[in-house]
Amino acid sequence: MADLLPISQLGDPIVRQKAAWVDDIHDEKIQKLIDDLIATVAQANGVGIAAPQVAEQKRLFIVASRPNPRYPNAPTMEPTAMINPRIVSHSSEIVKGWEGCLCIPGIRGLVPRYQTIEVEYYDRYGNLQKQKFHDFVARIFQHEYDHLDGIVFIDRIESTHHIITEQEYQKRVINIT
Ligand code: ZN
User: Would the pTM count as exceeding 0.85?
Assistant: First the structure.
C-alpha cells in the first residue's frame, strides 16, 4: 500500500543537498519509496518527482508524464522509476519551455534545456536501460536529474523576467502552447 509523502519546499536545506547513489535497488525500502513517489506525484498533478523532494537523498526519480491540470499538453507514459541515472550525451539544440516544481509552488519559469538526451538508468527491477528522450520528456528528465544535485529550475532561467505566477501561467501560457 503506497503512502503519500510530504514534499519538501524550497528553503528546506534538504532541497539543496546532493543525493547518494542507490546501492541496492531490490531493498524493500527503495521499492516502497518508488511506490510512494509514484502515488505522491500523481496526487500532486506532477509529471515527475525526485527522491530528494521527499527528503530521501537517493539518486532516483520518477518520470510520469501525462496530461493533468498543471500540464494539460503532456504526453502520456507509464510512470517510470529511473535509478542512478546518467546523461550520456545530448543534442546541441537547446529549447526553452515553462516548468514548475512541486518544491516551489505558485511560480513557473521559462527554462532552457537540451532538446534531446541519451540517458542510462536502472529500472526498478535492476535492469540497465538506455534510452533517448526528446522535448517534454527530455525536459522532465533534466529537471528531475537536477534535483539529485540540489539544483532547481529557477537556477537555470536566464532572466527574472522569465518567472511568472502559476495563475498567469494558467491564464496565458497554456492557451498558446
Ligand atoms: Zn522539481
Answer: yes
Instruction: Give percent of the chain above pLDDT 70.
Output: 98
What mean pLDDT do residues 83-98 have?
A: 97
Domain spans of the chain, in order of start? 13-174
pLDDT tens digits for 107-131?
Answer: 999 999 999 999 999 999 999 999 9
The C-alpha cell of 19 is what? 543525493
Task: Using the mean position of ligand 1's atoms as its centre, give its distance from the Cα of residue 37 in Å.
Answer: 13
Q: Taking the domain 13-174, which CATH number applies?
A: 3.90.45.10
- The pLDDT mean for the chain works out to 95
- So what's the pLDDT on residue 176? 53
> Ligand 1 center to residue 175 CA distance, Å?
23
- Catalytic: 144? yes
Residues 28, 99, 144, 168: which is the catalytic one? 144
